[in-house]
Amino acid sequence: MLVPQRRTVTLRAVKAFCTPRTLIRGLSLGLLLSLSLAAVGDDFLQGPEDHRDYSREPWREEETSLPPFPQTRHLMELNVPQVSGRLRYAIDAENLSVGDDGVVRYTVVVSSSSGARSVFFEGLRCSERTYKIYAYGHGGDSFRRRQDPQWQPIPRRGSQAFRDDLRRSQFCDRFGNVRPRHEIIRHLRGDFTLDL
Q: Which of 19, 22, 81, 185 is deepest in the core (most CB within 10 A)?
């Protein structure tokens, strides 16, 4: 049976390795390595998920100007299943817009079975699930701007639930991002494939 030889390190061998010259070389190598890692920076040490822009400015809403009053030929009727059949809703497709601030601005016309009509110019934020009414129809042919309109949560029930349907079915994708204008128009027309 072979017994492995045991190597012993003598103090003389350690002293021979730890000469001033080898110590200086080792320290120099360590210093160069730490300086090169510092030069590479955090990009080398952190994964790609850490490359977020934390310096972005907080969200700011764009200035909003009132659109022309809606014309009947530009209205696209909405099918809102969760709302009673007593009310009908339509969107002015001609003046629907998506701002750089991520707000969909649109005019909605609400008609009752008795013939009464209400017109609203609104904005909707997909990411926040909120809406704002900028102006009401006035006198049947113009808008009257609201004083200090505020963002409000989108109701899911009652006669105001059409906004929730707009958010889920037309304006926003399943991730809560606003769709481009041409896609919104396609969804309003019903000319789209399901977002599965």
A: 185
